[in-house]
Amino acid sequence: MYRINLNKIKHILLLFALTVGELWATADHPILLRDRSGNPIPHAIIRIQNTDIIPITPDGRFEVPVQSDPKAWIEITAIGYDPLKIQIKEALALSVLRMKEKIGQLEEVVVSATRTDRSVESLPMPVTIIGKSQIQETGGMRLSEVLREQTGLQVVPDHGSGLQMQGLSSDYILILLDGEPLVGRTAGTFDLDRIAVSNIERIEVLRGPSSAIYGSEAMAGVINIITKSSQIPVSASLDARYRSFNTSDISAEVGINKNEWSVYAYVNRFSTEGFDLTPDVIGMTQSPFQAHTAQFKLGKKFDKWDLKVNSRFYTENSTNTMEVRDGNSPRLVDMQGQRKDINLNPTLSFRPNEHWLFTLRTMTSAFETKMLTQFREDETLLDNQDFRQNYHRTELQIDHQLNQKHLLTLGLGHLLESVDATRYEDNNRFDAGYLFLQHQWDPTKKWNIVSGLRADVHSQYGEQLSPKVSAMYAFSERFRWQASVGAGFKAPDFRQLLLNFNNASSGYYVFGANLVQEGIQRLQSQGLVQQILIDPAQFGALAAETSRAVNTGFRWNIHDDLLLTGNFFLNHITNLIETAPVARLNTGQNAFSYFNVASVVTRGLEVDWTYRLSDNLQVSMGYMYLDAQDRDIVTQISNGELFTRDAQNRTRRVTLADYGGLFNRSRHSGNVKISYREPFTDIRLALRGIYRGRFGFGDLNGNLILDDPTEYARGLTAWNLTLHKTLSNGLTIEAGGFNLLNQLNLYDPSNPGRTLFMGARLPLHQLIKTN
After folding, report:
1. CATH number of the domain enclosing 50
2. 265 lies in which domain range?
3. Whole-model pTM?
4. In which band, very low, low, confident or very high, does the pLDDT at 13 lie, cut at 50, 70 and 90?
């Protein structure tokens, strides 16, 4: 019989325990540092009991030294996150530590506000940061879908997805990509749907006049889109999304960061079959189209030099069908449209010492559109339109840190822009030179003052000065008050005067002020006009604009989990160049043009409230009140000079209570968001409600102002939901929907109704490493 030798087993177990203990004692213990979405936090600073900093790898991994006392405390800090303090024995038991994002991201570094690196907390002007996690919560594929959920930003269908800020249109909002201006505006409006979001790192929203450092296009504010770059030695990922209307968004990215070299490449394909809000009319409200985006970044760091080369290419192809009248006979026409956008941006920086920084930037862009319209039956030509814009800018910026309290910035540059189009008589060109000076001053720990002045010399509108002063006072660590005053100037350009444009992907028309009468008559002769909204005879020569603006508000961290921000604004613009729908087309789209409003005032307030109820639940709310008026109209009403007709067709004077202000502005708008992490499954939920109050869509009674209840489009609330989960290997799965209650507005052709989506993001480098 086989007999068990207990003493021998005891010796074996003792030897095994000693061996394991020796191995454990000689090995460090790895811990992963992640945010609530599972993303690594490689920029964290980690200490144990106030000892030296423990290094962390680019994928968010650090190791606890073997000799550490299990009862000792690990202290972790990182920009944008609440500090974390935990005992070593608890951290080893978890193996994965998660940091909570700071409410409001006040420590985020911002570039757009001063063209230098400053944290949100130290800026004397209203700035909002939209981070990666917030972008992911929107479920958006294009930039418009992200921005429409932000307080104070209104995405409106002004010949594409345009943007309003503080009641001012896209003409006055500068759109930057990695700090450089994007061109290709259709009569002043930049179409936000040209920008994919899957490679965006964050978005900086600077409210208020910024002409002192950016020029006239920044009279209302700046949107700076910061795209991703290589942060770890090797990275690669795939991203795919699909939604209603057979819409797909597929992208891939790869990055390398080694030996002071960084390379990043990104490609994206977006396609949709469009949608139709008027099925009884031939033609789609939004045309089917396909868009491709490619971006490439190259960087090299030398001893005191830093070279970066960014490039981007965008192309879009669209098709649609419409019915026009040839005499008394209806005929079908096929429309083919194309848009292209190419950008190249080399930047060279030199820092000889800690007090000086020299940065040389160049920006070269080319934007073009083509539109071909043919009769279907015999392919004869009905219309052929080409548009091309070339833009080149060279700029030198010098930053000099006089001491800890004073930073001077000097910039000087030159830009050349030319536009050529089918219906322009000549190749229109202008040159401009500019110089700007900025002083950042911190006289005490409580005060922060930024002052700036820009001088422009323009071949079209001569010389102009744009000053700005901003200041912030910190009453305490939790409460800060800020204020800024600025001025700007903007002249009508040749596009606003002479453009004759039709976008096939959306079906809208834009006519310059000098061409609108002829253009509307042509559309009427083709049987495309359903309703005249404003008499084209009212349009004519445009005058230049000037502006003055004030912003003042506060940031109040009531406690670590509750943040309240507010901003009061006042903009006074003389000779505002306003975009307005002139006619409503049979397809549901509009034909637009431009006119001057002699004296306009937009004023109101923006309030944001964010409350973190627990580690898993956060609620935020935003509200904007806007009063946008033509002051000359107010004077005429007060003098009894304007009239309308009542329901019995009797003439009466218009009262101030009748007047609704500028067209296409909502007096009330807001949003609410509930973010929740289900602790057992780690599924993230983001439920958002976006409200836009009623707005005036056109003049129906012929007195050229908004004063009749029939001239308003009703307000509505869209409820959006996003669910996403990140697995241990980094794979993220998402699903959700937009406008779940299917709220529709006849005068918003960008709203297709209820839209459902699903998608996945696969980080290949993390998956391979995990396996």
Report:
1. 2.60.40.1120
2. 224-283+290-328+347-425+439-770
3. 0.83
4. very low
Which of these three, 101, 125, 152, is where a domain ends? 101
Phi, psi of 640 (to 5 degrees): 70, 30
Angle value at C-alpha 383, between 380 and 385, nearest 5 degrees = 135
In our burial notation (b when 16+ CB lie closer than 10 A, e otherwise), range 192-228 reads bbbbbbbbbebbbbbbbbbbbbbbbbbbbbbbbbbbb
- With residues binned 3-state (H G I as helix, E B as strand, rest as coil), the percentages for the chain, rounded to 5, are 10, 55, 35
Structure tokens of 579? Answer: 């975009």
Token pair recorded at residue 57:
């790898």
Kindly state whether residues 476 and 591 are assigned to the same domain.
yes
433: in domain: no
pLDDT (tens digit per residue) in 114-167: 777 777 767 788 888 898 889 999 999 999 999 999 999 999 887 678 899 999
Number of domains in the chain: 3
CA distances, 324 to each of 21, 289, 375, 532, 587 (Å): 85, 22, 9, 17, 12
CA–CA dist 71, 90 (Å, integer): 9
Beta carbons within 8 Å of 440's beta carbon, 6+ residues apart: 114, 116, 118, 406, 407, 408, 409, 448, 449, 450
Same domain, yes or no, for 133 and 239? no
Whether residues 122 and 202 share a domain: the answer is yes
* Cβ neighbours of 705 (radius 10 Å): 22
Whose structure tokens read 């904007």? 624
Q: Which residues contact 580 (CB under 8 A, 6 or more apart)?
A: 533, 534, 592, 593, 594, 595, 663, 664, 698
